[in-house]
Amino acid sequence: MATVTFDQATRIYPGGDRPAVDKLNIDIADGEFLVLVGPSGCGKSTSLRMLAGLEDVNDGAIRIGDRDVTHLPPKDRDIAMVFQNYALYPHMTVADNMGFALKIAGVNKAEIRQRVEEAAKILDLTEYLSRKPKALSGGQRQRVAMGRAIVREPQVFLMDEPLSNLDAKLRVQTRTQIASLQRRLGTTTVYVTHDQVEAMTMGDRVAVLKDGLLQQVDSPRNMYDRPANLFVAGFIGSPAMNLVEVPITDGGVTFGNSVVPVNREALKAASDSGDKTVTVGVRPEHFEIADGEAKSVSKDAPAGVAVTVNVVEELGADGYVYGSAEVAGSQVDIVVRVGGRSVPLKGDVLHVVPRGGETHVFSTSTGERLSD
Amino acid sequence: MSNTVTAGDRPGRTSRSGRGGVPSASGIALRQARRRKKLEWIAVHSVGLAIAVAFLLPFVFLFLTSVMSDSQALTSTLWPQHWVWSNYTAVFRVHGFGTWWRNTIEYAVLGTVLTVVSSVPVAYALAKFRFPGRRLAMMLVISMMMLPPQVIIIPMYLFWAKQLHLDGTLWPLIIPMAFGDAFSIFLLRQFLLTIPKEYLDAARVDGCGEVRTLLRVVLPMARPAISAVALFQFFYCWNDYFGPQIYSSDNPAAWTLSYGLQSFHGAHQTNWNLTMAATLLVMAPVIVVFFFAQKAFIEGVTLTGVKG
Predict the structure, then answer these.
(1) Closest to B66 measured CA to CA, from B30, B96, B90, B33
(2) Residue ranges of chain A whose CB lies within 8 Å of a chain B CB
(3) What are the transmembrane regions (chain B) (predicted)?
(4) Percent of chain A with pLDDT over 70
(5) How far apart are CA A252 and CA A257, in angstroms?
(6) For testing contact with chain B, the best of A79, A86, A100, A153 (most B CBs within 10 A)
(7) Which of B205, B213, B216 to mutate to test the interface with A (most CBs of A within 10 A)?
């Protein structure tokens, strides 16, 4: 068990001018499940490989517990890693695969066997121990890869997109299994994924990266409720948050025929920096269909924004309406969640109002969050 | 074959009777396609058989001559009048034949082992490590492959014979194999390139250093390529005529089988039946090895482009 610290850790690939990971600072608590998430090329895998010792650290430091491991080879770091393609040695049986690291470390045979059998029991692999990886299904291979990591009882688990080679159903199942296994073992875990649903459902905390820069580290709930900037707002949540650029008015910002209240100081800061507009973010589930009682800024028109329905996705319990609307003189795409029993038809016009307290306001020029 | 065709015909027949005996368009197309396939099969196999016969005929001739009596060997009768199996034992009574066997096995086995041991690490480094001069090293390997051995034979001979005085032995042929072989390095490297980097990463995380990664993880995965290289090298050494001729032609005690065979071909008289029997004996190990190892052989050559 140990904490993990990225201290200004930087990686510049030979021949590259821009760092792949730029001054990364994260403190991971003992026993925490931290998920690194971001689009491809954001540096999340590189960060993980730096922690594993498979990638040089050009600047800054990485610590596991109190030990500075920045320049230690992987074998001296007391870590175990699960790879995206599992990297199970094809010429070894499942048991040999799982016990390989212990064998290299010189652990005696009886203990290796005992630990492998224990891990196999946890992962439901006992009957496959004498098989070769070739004779296993994708899900079983994935579990062997997990088993290979847990028999070592390392200080830190590193997982590099371990679920992306599974089919959708198995992925959801395995997701829960990994999360509960981690809670049970209590081992500090760093998990890389590009899937924000995985990130939100598995992590104690989530770190969002983009272009090698850390955007935000927070609990999934806070990440969802208070994204720190436009990128996080657009990345976390599915379907993505509606982000619309609107002009600044007195006491707030106009969103169609409604006023979204915004912290006065934040607005002042925005207009002081020369911005005439801010970007308002509303999640699809935070729109309400206006029923005529909502407060409108114009007497002739109903409150909110008129959204013309283009496509409706019915998911059973609810539905997502993909439509277009005119906001502040330009055409924007809007996604609205509606109840599963009251789905509009294509071509209908919906008047939607953002629910009070559920709007996010960002500076258009810097992308930073302005609202509380 | 005929069974398959009959069984395959059945669905076509059912569909015809289902439509009141009128063959449907798709039924006709199906039958035409099947007939075309059958004709193709016949064409491909006839050509294959013809080629096989063309290649086999010399062997048949070789074998038949090897069991003829000395007086019959040069006549126009192709079938042996008496089957003289004793030709095969007579060959072993030829002075030196046993020694040549031993020399050949020594040359082929040592050469093969040394080539594999010396080429694998080089190929691994060229495939998986990034270091300055890597491209240049690769270019050197490729240019060595393009260089015909005859071009450097004079300086090589002078070096081995005049500097090291190793002429009259097979060592000038064996020792260089401890320093890598360009073709083997190239073939192994191409194969190692197809091994995903994650396996090496996994081995490193599991606690292996570079040498252990190579021995415990990479080598077992590269077995098809290594077998292919070993086979190529074994056959090369076994069949080598040029090398022994250059370095050991003066010393019959250091001849190999392929070079020794020429001694059957005398200046005044040639015992063709014995020559043929000896030739068959020399070829036998190669044929046996190839028969058992052809899968590995073909795999190694094709695998370099195929992912597992």
Answers:
(1) B90
(2) 14, 49, 52-54, 73-75, 79-81, 83-85, 87, 89-91, 100-101, 104-105, 148
(3) 41-64, 107-127, 139-158, 170-192, 213-236, 272-293
(4) 96
(5) 12
(6) A100
(7) B205
Assess whether pLDDT exceeds 70 at residue B19. Answer: no
Question: Hey, what amino acid is at A188?
Answer: T
pLDDT value for A298: 55
Whether the Cβ atoms of residue A307 and residue A325 lie closer than 8 Å to each other: yes
Answer whether A348's CB lies under 8 Å from A315's CB: no
Nearest CA to B123 out of B199, B203, B180 is that of B180
Give the CA radius of gyration of chain B.
Answer: 27
pLDDT tens for each residue of B133-159: 999 999 999 998 888 888 889 999 999
Given a contact cutoff of 8 angstroms between Cβ atoms, the answer to whether B282 and B261 are in contact is yes
Q: What is the pTM of this model?
A: 0.79
Contact between residue A207 and residue A26 where contact means Cβ atoms under 8 Å apart: yes
- The answer to whether B206 faces chain A, any CB pair under 8 Å, is yes
How far apart (Å, rounded) are the C-alpha atoms in residues A228 and A217? 9
What proportion of chain A, given as a percentage, has pLDDT over 90? 66
Closest by alpha carbon to A4, among A214, A179, A156?
A156
pLDDT tens digits for range B76-107? 778 888 888 888 888 888 778 889 989 999 99
> DSSP string covering B233-270, please?
HHHHHHH--HHHHHHHTT-GGG--HHHHGGGGB-SS-B
For residue A21, the cross-strand partners are A11
Q: What average pLDDT does this structure show over B173-186?
A: 92
DSSP assigned state of B122:
H
Domains of chain A, start order: 4-231 (3.40.50.300), 239-290+301-363 (no CATH)
Q: What is the mean pLDDT of residues A200-207?
A: 94
CATH tag for B95-303 (out of 3.90.180.10, 3.30.930.10, 3.30.43.10, 1.10.3720.10): 1.10.3720.10
Q: Distance (Å) from the C-alpha of residue B207 to the closest C-alpha of chain A?
A: 4
Q: Return d(Cα B234, Cα B240) in angstroms, integer.
A: 10
pLDDT at B260 over 60: yes
B87 close to B66: Cβ distance less than 8 angstroms: yes
- pLDDT at residue B306 in the model: 35
Tens-digit pLDDT profile for residues A117-170: 999 999 999 999 999 999 999 899 999 999 999 999 999 999 999 998 899 899
Ramachandran angles phi, psi of A24, nearest 5°: -75, 125
- Give burial (CB, 10 Å; 0-12/13-18/19+) of A104: middle
Widest Cα–Cα separation across chain B:
92
Amino acid at B95: H
Q: Would you list the domain boundaries of chain B?
A: 2-66, 95-303
With H, G, I as helix, E, B as strand and everything else as coil, classify residue A47. Answer: helix
Gap between the Cα atoms of B158 and B122, Å rounded = 28
Q: Is the ipTM of this complex over 0.90?
A: no
Write the pLDDT tens digit of every residue in A210-237. Answer: 999 999 999 999 999 999 999 999 999 9
List chain A residues with CB under 8 Å of B220.
89, 91
Closest approach of chain A CAs to the CA of B233, in angstroms?
Answer: 25
Query: How high is the mean pLDDT of chain B?
Result: 84
